[in-house]
C-alpha cells in the first residue's frame, strides 16, 4: 500500500463457504469477517470525507486536557538529585528543604516526598510530579528503603485500579510512577548490593533509567569503564531497565542519529548545577572550578542534554505507554486473578456448606473456564512484558518466569 492511500475497514456478514463445515447446508453459518477494502481516492475537494483531521482533533483534545508525568528520584542524599531536577525543569523545587543531620540519618527511615509543579510551554500544560525518597540508603540497614519505594509504586497502581473500576472515571488522576531515575554514585566501581536489591524490587513495576551522578568527578575513561560495568551487572543480574523503543524506519536521518546516540549513552553520566554562568557572552548552567567551568549542557562534558532530550522531548510518551501497557497491565492482571480466585474460593465454601458432610469441592465448567482465563491472561501479559523489554533470549526467558 502506498503512503497516502485511503482505505476502509469494513465488517461484512458473509457465508463462509470455504470452511470445512460449510459442506452441509445445516452447518452453513454466517461468519462476520473483517475485510480491508482499499479505496483509491483522487485528492480533489469532491472526494474529501474529512477524517484526515483526526490527528488534529486528538492533538487539540490532548492539549486542552494537559499532560501528567510522575518522576521518581532514587539515590542517597548528596548525590545531586534536587540539583538535577532543578536543572532539568528549570525550576526551584527544593527551596525550603531541610537537610537532616547525621543522627537523624542513622535512625531515619526512607520517606516519600511529593512535589508537583504545573509547567506551560507554548500552550501545552504539563503537571509534573517529582517523588523524592529522602533517607534512601542513608540508614545502616537499607532494607526498608526499597520496601518504601516499592510500596509507593504499588499504592499508585492500586489507587488507579480502584478509580478505574469506580463509577466516576471522568476526573481520574494518573499518579502512577512513569519513570524512576536511579542515581549511582560516581565513586562506585559498579552496582552495589543496595542498588541491585532496589532495582530487583522495582524493575517490573516501573521504568528505571540509571544515571551516574556527579560525572564531573570522573575522567572520560572512568565514565566509560563505570558505564560498561553497570551494563554488565544489569545483564548478569537480569535487571530490565527501560528499553528504548526501535526507531521507526520512516524517521529522518537526523532523528535516527539522535536515537542511536541516546541508546549508546545509557546509563547517562550527568552533571547538574543550580548556577547560571556567563561563558563567551552566553548564559549557561555550569559549575565553576579553579581550573575551569563545566558546562552542564555541553555534550562533551556530560550526558545531561541527552537525558533531558530523552526524558522530556522524545520518550516521555513512551515512558507513559510502557507504564500503562506493561507495568500497570501486569499489576491489573494480578489483581483480577486474585479477585477471581477469592470469588471461586468463596463459591467453593458456599457449595461445601450446602452439601453438608461431603467436603469435595465441585467445580463447575464456568469455574474451570475462569481459572483457565486467569492463567492465560497472566501468562500473556507476562510474555508481552518480556517481549517489550528484552530481545529474545531463551535462557533469560526461563529465569524471568
Ligand atoms: P541531593 O541530596 O541528592 O538532592 O543532592 P543536592 O542536589 O542537594 O546536591 C548536594 C551537593 O552536591 C550540592 O552542594 C550540589 O551543588 C552538589 N552537586 C549537585 N550536582 C552536582 C554535580 O553534578 N557535580 C558535582 N560535583 N556536585 C554536584
User: CATH-wise, what's the superfamily of the domain at 65-334?
Assistant: P-loop containing nucleotide triphosphate hydrolases
N-to-C terminal Cα separation, in Å? Answer: 39 Å
Strand order of the largest sheet: 4-5-3-6-7-8
State mean pLDDT (0 to 100 scale): 79
The CATH class name of the domain at 65-334 reads Alpha Beta
| Share in β-strands | 15-25%
Structural class: alpha/beta
Low-confidence stretches: 1-7, 10-23, 380-386, 389-401
Task: Name the shape in a single word.
Answer: globular
Q: What is the helix tally?
A: 11
Which oligomeric state applies? single chain
Protein name: Septin
Pfam families: Septin (PF00735)
Subcellular location: Cytoplasm
Domain Septin-type G: 65-338
Amino acid at each position: 500500500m502506498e503512503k497516502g492511500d485511503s482505505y476502509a475497514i469494513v465488517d461484512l456478514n458473509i457465508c463462509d463457504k470455504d470452511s470445512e463445515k460449510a459442506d452441509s447446508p445445516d452447518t452453513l453459518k454466517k461468519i462476520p469477517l473483517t475485510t480491508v477494502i482499499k479505496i483509491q481516492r483522487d485528492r480533489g475537494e469532491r472526494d474529501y470525507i474529512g477524517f484526515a483531521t483526526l490527528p488534529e482533533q486528538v492533538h487539540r483534545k490532548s492539549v486542552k486536557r494537559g499532560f501528567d508525568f510522575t518522576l521518581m528520584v532514587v539515590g542517597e542524599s548528596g548525590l545531586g538529585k534536587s540539583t538535577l531536577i532543578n536543572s532539568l525543569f528549570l525550576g526551584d523545587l527544593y527551596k525550603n528543604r531541610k537537610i537532616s543531620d547525621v543522627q537523624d540519618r542513622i535512625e531515619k527511615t526512607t520517606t516519600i516526598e511529593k512535589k508537583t509543579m504545573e509547567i506551560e510551554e507554548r500552550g501545552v500544560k504539563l503537571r509534573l510530579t517529582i517523588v523524592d525518597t529522602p533517607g534512601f540508603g542513608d540508614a545502616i540497614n537499607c532494607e526498608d528503603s526499597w520496601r518504601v519505594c516499592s510500596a509507593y509504586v504499588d499504592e499508585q497502581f492500586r489507587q488507579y485500579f480502584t478509580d478505574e473500576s469506580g463509577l466516576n472515571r471522568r476526573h481520574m488522576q494518573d499518579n502512577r510512577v512513569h519513570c524512576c531515575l536511579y542515581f549511582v554514585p560516581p565513586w562506585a566501581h559498579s552496582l552495589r548490593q543496595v542498588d541491585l536489591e532496589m532495582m530487583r524490587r522495582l524493575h517490573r513495576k516501573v521504568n528505571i533509567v540509571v544515571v551516574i551522578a556527579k560525572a564531573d568527578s570522573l575522567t572520560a575513561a572512568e565514565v566509560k569503564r563505570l558505564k560498561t560495568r553497570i551494563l554488565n551487572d544489569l545483564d548478569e543480574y537480569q535487571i530490565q531497565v527501560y528499553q528504548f523503543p526501535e526507531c521507526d524506519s520512516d524517521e529522518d536521518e537526523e532523528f535516527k542519529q539522535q536515537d542511536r546516540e541516546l541508546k549508546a549513552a545509557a546509563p547517562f553520566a550527568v552533571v547538574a548545577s543550580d548556577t547560571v554562568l556567563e561563558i563567551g557572552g552566553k548564559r549557561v548552567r555550569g559549575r565553576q572550578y579553579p581550573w575551569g567551568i563545566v558546562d552542564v549542557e555541553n555534550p562533551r562534558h556530560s550526558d545531561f542534554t541527552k537525558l533531558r532530550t530523552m526524558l522530556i522531548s522524545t520518550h516521555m510518551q513512551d515512558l507513559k505507554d510502557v507504564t500503562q501497557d506493561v507495568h500497570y497491565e501486569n499489576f491489573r492482571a494480578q489483581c483480577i486473578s486474585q479477585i477471581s480466585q477469592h470469588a471461586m474460593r468463596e463459591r467453593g465454601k458456599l457449595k461445601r456448606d450446602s452439601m453438608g458432610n461431603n467436603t469435595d469441592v465441585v467445580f463447575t465448567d464456568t469455574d474451570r473456564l475462569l481459572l483457565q482465563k486467569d492463567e492465560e491472561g497472566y501468562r500473556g501479559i507476562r510474555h508481552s512484558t518480556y517481549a517489550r523489554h528484552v530481545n529474545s533470549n531463551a535462557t533469560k526467558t526461563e529465569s524471568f518466569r
